[in-house]
Amino acid sequence: MRRAPQAPRLDHHALERYERIWLGVAVVMTVLLFVGVLSSLISGTYPRLSGQGGGHSMAVTKGRVDPANLAATPFARPGLVVDAAGQPVVNAQGTLDAYIVAGNFTFQPAVLRLPAGRPVTLHVTATDVAHGFQITGTNVNVELLPGHVATLTVTFRRSGEQHVICNEYCGLGHHNMITRFLVEPPAPAAKE
Ligand SMILES: [Cu+2]
Predict the structure, then answer these.
(1) Per-residue DSSP letters for 45-104?
(2) Are 20 and 28 in contact (CB under 8 A)?
(3) pLDDT tens, residue by residue, 120-145
(4) Which helix (H) or strand (E) covers residue 33, if one does?
(5) Are residues 102 and 38 in the same domain?
(6) Distance 28 CA to ligand 1 centre (A)
(7) How far apart are CA 113 and CA 138, in angstroms?
(8) Are 70 and 127 in contact, with CB atoms under 8 Å apart?
(9) From the CA of 173, how far away is ligand 1's center (Å)?
């Protein structure tokens, strides 16, 4: 009586051929990954903590704040720091200041108006849990932790609308956590 036909046996020459093929696939993938990382570094699309990239310049420093008592800090009034006449205040570093608070699935202010072409130092913190702060299409991308202030100086060279998203899952309302920057062209020089 004959036994049921079995699956064809692979001899070890065939196995070696498959191994060579898979080794080749792995080498090709490694090379593609290396080329991809290298080219993204050269083109500047890879996030960097300093220098220039994505059309904006920035620098990062860090500070602390009591998340339960923001009323005693500049975060009590989120937005661009302006004087009594509504004009942006230039700080000692020669930049403008803007304060942004992330918490309870929102960013405050809901819309931040900024002038194009002027360095703005963004001070961003979280009140409740860890959030993300990413200006889409740029290399501005920081993690926000309650009690910590992320400080970064950004120059928006072009006017227009920029979207800011939370890219770190923070709870049920995470997907609604989005805000806008309205980058406005520099005010025309006053006419005499
Ligand atoms: Cu969030």
Answers:
(1) -S--SSEEETTEEE-EEEEE--TT-GGGSGGGS-EE-B-TTSPBPB-TTSSEEEEEEEET
(2) no
(3) 989 999 999 999 999 988 888 999 98
(4) helix 12-43
(5) no
(6) 38
(7) 18
(8) yes
(9) 8
What average pLDDT score do residues 5-32 get? 85
Q: Are residues 89 and 20 in the same domain?
A: no
Q: What percent of the chain has pLDDT over 70?
A: 81
For the record, the structure tokens of 138 come out as 């740029």
Number of domains in the chain: 2
pTM here is 0.67
- Residue 10's pLDDT band (boundaries 50, 70, 90)? low
Residue keyed to tokens 């608070």: 101
More confident residue, 100 or 6: 100
Q: How close is the Cα of 177 to the center of ligand 1, in Å?
A: 6
Q: Are residues 38 and 98 in the same domain?
A: no
Ligand 1: distance of its center to the CA of 184 in Å? 26
Residue 169 and residue 75 share a domain: yes
Kindly state whether residues 121 and 155 are assigned to the same domain: yes
- Model pLDDT, residue 80: 92
132 Cα: distance to centroid of ligand 1 (angstroms): 6
